[in-house]
């Protein structure tokens, strides 16, 4: 297995050929990868690996750069949190594009997305929703990505279920970026299959992660580890 | 630092390596100058024997380091001679019938080729940043394609393709005869070796450009073990593991990074008595860098290290390691310091902006700032863990009180630490693959505001101890 959103099953053969061969260096391939990015944005899947190939082409051919493609790639990577995907994409941008003091439109946009990413990576979900609401620029940046908020919300819910057995509805309200307790209740019951007990406590079914069972880590011992010693003693006696 | 006093290279502080590096380069340069003089003496018409001599000396020269402070003309010239040499090797009619001068020659050539590309790019960026050397700026602007990224990549990929090295390695992996798929070129050791080390070269170039996953993917055909071809050339062995480990670290796969660094550091410490001292000197710097990187990785993922590594790490970076492991804002400057000292000299693949000197930011700052984002996200994890270890159940508000933070802040810290306790770890296949494993001995789950904590007990590990003592007794 691999990182989230690294090699999705939706990837067509044509794209596979590009990113696995020398075609990935052909500036003409940028058009194909851009169209594929649009497809990802519309069809709600994510291929960070192919998107990095596009960023690489931009890195080598700055005259090809399309600002919109860069921001869309970053937003798609954002939805994979927590993961290094967003950082991996950032590393392929030029220093000027990520420099907060330069005042180009792109570097400002990248700065905004980086703030969002920090909040998601840092599990500051309430702050994330507040930031998203704070400025129209965020709506502009995420407008191409179908179902952006839903994807983030679902991911947050998934992550909560890996840490919590029970959680207060008031906390969830802030974290899921929903308007009131009623909506939260509807969301967790319908989308997540969780139960809401009396007193506004949401119960999350048991899973491997939210149990925190006691374990003992023991050393795996097998015969191979002793192969050399045994071989040597055999040779010495022989 | 006691290990260093036994007649080994004097310890050098991180960061000011250029002096020593320079000195080495100057020594090498003296030899190289002799070659240049030889070239000048060559008469116009060459006999057959002289031609062979000529190509032999070109092969030799390609493996020679260029002086650190060589003038720009020399750097341009060096690029031209690489181009013509590779052109000769790749585009002659049929494979060139030449034996490489030595078994490490191919490594030296690729190594020096990439080193010069790397230092040329850094130099060009620095000239643009300083913006006061009109003459050199003019020269660099007129020759934007010299040491261009596309041509360097082109050389490496062409050598790989010509030699069919990927096919050969594939056959070896399947226990088949590589010669059956090697073709006219790949069956010659000159091409095979150049192709092979070009793969390692690509690993390096991709890392220098910040493409860490592509860097690791490049090694898909190479099996990392002591039987690998690169292991026969110490410098290649060493370099490979440095870049593999670094790329893993940048992809947050700290346990894989530690494994890569430990592997090679243990190997070096066990064989240092057999290494020629000159060779050992040249790897001392990378050695130090890898210890610094291990310190960073261990701070992210507390790990039980090999005893030799552990002792050396405490000697070299004991104070820093303590601070890193404690976390919090005080640890941030240490992370930065170690990262700067130990990272590769990142470059930008395109010519800088000579019009606006201040727009050319050092790529190291760029990559460092991204790396520091993740460091900051994690900086409270050590604090959280140190408290949780003391309890089996704990009230969230009470703990928040101890730590003097708001409840919601602590909830985020708890989630972050829990989420980071899972890491991809390499199994047996490609370097990028792995399985998601729990790397922490501390686990917890929340029930409302009640934290349930469970600590995994680690049983004693005896196999390693047993084997080591056995070999000591019977050695």
From TrEMBL, chain A:
Against InterPro entries, the record matches this protein to:
ARM-type_fold (IPR016024), CSN8_PSD8_EIF3K (IPR033464), eIF3k (IPR009374), PCI_dom (IPR000717), Transl_init_fac_sub12_N_euk (IPR016020), WH-like_DNA-bd_sf (IPR036388), WH_DNA-bd_sf (IPR036390)
Keywords, A to Z, come to: Cytoplasm, Initiation factor, Protein biosynthesis
Pfam families in alphabetical order: CSN8_PSD8_EIF3K
Q: Where in the cell is it found?
A: Cytoplasm
Any one Gene Ontology BP term:
formation of cytoplasmic translation initiation complex
Q: Which residues cross the membrane?
A: none
Q: What are this entry's molecular-function GO terms?
A: ribosome binding; RNA binding; translation initiation factor activity
Instruction: Please state every residue range assigned to the domain named PCI.
Output: 46-220
Provide GO CC annotations from the record: eukaryotic 43S preinitiation complex; eukaryotic 48S preinitiation complex; eukaryotic translation initiation factor 3 complex
Quote the subunit structure annotation: Component of the eukaryotic translation initiation factor 3 (eIF-3) complex.
Task: State what this protein does.
Answer: Component of the eukaryotic translation initiation factor 3 (eIF-3) complex, which is involved in protein synthesis of a specialized repertoire of mRNAs and, together with other initiation factors, stimulates binding of mRNA and methionyl-tRNAi to the 40S ribosome. The eIF-3 complex specifically targets and initiates translation of a subset of mRNAs involved in cell proliferation.
Matches recorded under PANTHER family: EUKARYOTIC TRANSLATION INITIATION FACTOR 3 SUBUNIT 11, EUKARYOTIC TRANSLATION INITIATION FACTOR 3 SUBUNIT K
Report the family membership. Answer: Belongs to the eIF-3 subunit K family.
Name the record gives this protein: Eukaryotic translation initiation factor 3 subunit K
Which organism is the protein's source?
Immersiella caudata
Kindly list the organism's lineage: Eukaryota, Fungi, Dikarya, Ascomycota, Pezizomycotina
UniProtKB/TrEMBL annotation, chain B:
Q: InterPro entries, alphabetically?
A: eIF3l (IPR019382), PCI_dom (IPR000717)
**GO CC annotation:** eukaryotic 43S preinitiation complex; eukaryotic 48S preinitiation complex; eukaryotic translation initiation factor 3 complex
Query: Keywords of this protein's UniProt record, alphabetized?
Result: Cytoplasm, Initiation factor, Membrane, Protein biosynthesis, Transmembrane, Transmembrane helix
Signal peptide segment: none
Q: Which GO terms describe its biological process?
A: formation of cytoplasmic translation initiation complex
- Recorded superkingdom: Eukaryota
Q: Which PROSITE patterns match?
A: PCI
* Locations listed in the record: Cytoplasm
- Is the keyword Cytoplasm in the record? yes
Residues in PCI domain copies = 256-450
* TM helices/strands, residue ranges: 189-209, 229-249
Q: Which GO terms describe its molecular function?
A: translation initiation factor activity
Question: Which parts of the sequence are annotated with region: Disordered?
Answer: 1-20
Pfam family of this protein, just one? Answer: Paf67
Query: Briefly, what is this protein's role?
Result: Component of the eukaryotic translation initiation factor 3 (eIF-3) complex, which is involved in protein synthesis of a specialized repertoire of mRNAs and, together with other initiation factors, stimulates binding of mRNA and methionyl-tRNAi to the 40S ribosome. The eIF-3 complex specifically targets and initiates translation of a subset of mRNAs involved in cell proliferation.
Subunit architecture:
Component of the eukaryotic translation initiation factor 3 (eIF-3) complex.
The entry sums up its family as follows:
Belongs to the eIF-3 subunit L family.
Query: What is the protein's name according to its record?
Result: Eukaryotic translation initiation factor 3 subunit L
Which species does the entry assign this protein to? Answer: Immersiella caudata
